């Protein structure tokens, strides 16, 4: 298994609300695992040789690692903020590199063309200048001051607005998006992408949201986010090469790709190479 340093990271492996004592079989980085609820109501994850794996329960999900995580699961402070609705969107299986799934989530330029009349629309296709940095203290990739016109920025939105975004990558297969909250100016909606690597070219994607929206039915919130990601899936499953290229010479970035460039540089720095292509073929 070409896991590199990624073997010691935390990964989502299921929804805590769906755990049963009988357990559910799944796969993490090519290794069969079983996720179950203990008689005491806790989560348990075991490998195929019945080894108990490190486990955390956070953000509605069960997290596990095949290795020995060197740091705690990343914090999302908004998950503890009173008044938010927490939305377990479910899971979507995608035939792509888990790193490709995260990079697509970070891409702003595709909004008008893939999420037409929802997250973007022509002629509003230009990506304005924004700021990207690798924050050394947190060891995270951040993109801030991102602005984009959106016909329907959220299920709760009633018209087109210029939406402000912040993107954060706290782990190789996870990203957190902060965006303008239509019903509560001054606050951020939080939309996350938690990716479970099944193989280098196959993953389960678990979106999760923490919103200020007291009106939209939960089913509508879930369906809206699933619709957005299903639009992405057809793009992801047809990208070439299938693995994410980490050699700077393999693809030519544009100004809109600054977050992707920083993400790839950060992956390469840490030897996060499961699902990556290191040299041109």
SSE diagram, text form:
Layout: E1 11-15, E2 24-28, E3 31-37, E4 43-47, E5 55-58, E6 61-64, E7 85-88, E8 92-94, H1 98-106, H2 111-114, E9 131-135, E10 140-150, E11 161-171, E12 174-180, E13 188-199, E14 202-211, H3 218-236, E15 244-245, H4 258-270, E16 276-277
Parallel strand pairs: 15-16
Antiparallel strand pairs: 1-6, 2-3, 3-4, 5-6, 7-14, 8-14, 9-10, 10-11, 11-12, 12-13, 13-14
Biggest β-sheet description: 8 strands, antiparallel
Mean pLDDT: 85
User: How many helices?
Assistant: 4
Number of strands: 16
Structural class comes to alpha+beta
Percent strand: 25-35%
Shape: globular
Helix and strand string, N-terminal first?
EEEEEEEEHHEEEEEEHEHE
Cα-to-Cα separation, first versus last residue: 20 Å
Helical residue percent band: 10-25%
Low-confidence stretches: 112-125
Overall radius of gyration: 18 Å
InterPro entries: Cholesterol_7-desaturase, VanA_C_cat
Protein name: Aromatic ring-hydroxylating dioxygenase subunit alpha
GO molecular function, one term: dioxygenase activity
Pfam families: VanA_C (PF19112)
Structure, explained:
There is one protein chain. The protein is α+β, with helices and mostly antiparallel strands and 281 residues long. Helices cover 16% and strands 35% of the residues. It has helices at 98-106, 111-114, 218-236, 258-270; strands at residues 11-15, 24-28, 31-37, 43-47, 55-58, 61-64, 85-88, 92-94, 131-135, 140-150, 161-171, 174-180, 188-199, 202-211, 244-245, 276-277. Strands 7, 8, 9, 10, 11, 12, 13 and 14 form an eight-stranded antiparallel beta sheet that branches. A three-stranded antiparallel beta sheet has the order 1-6-5, with no helix packed on it. A three-stranded antiparallel beta sheet has the order 2-3-4, with no helix packed on it. The longest helix has 19 residues, at 218-236. Keywords: Dioxygenase, Oxidoreductase. Pfam families: VanA_C.
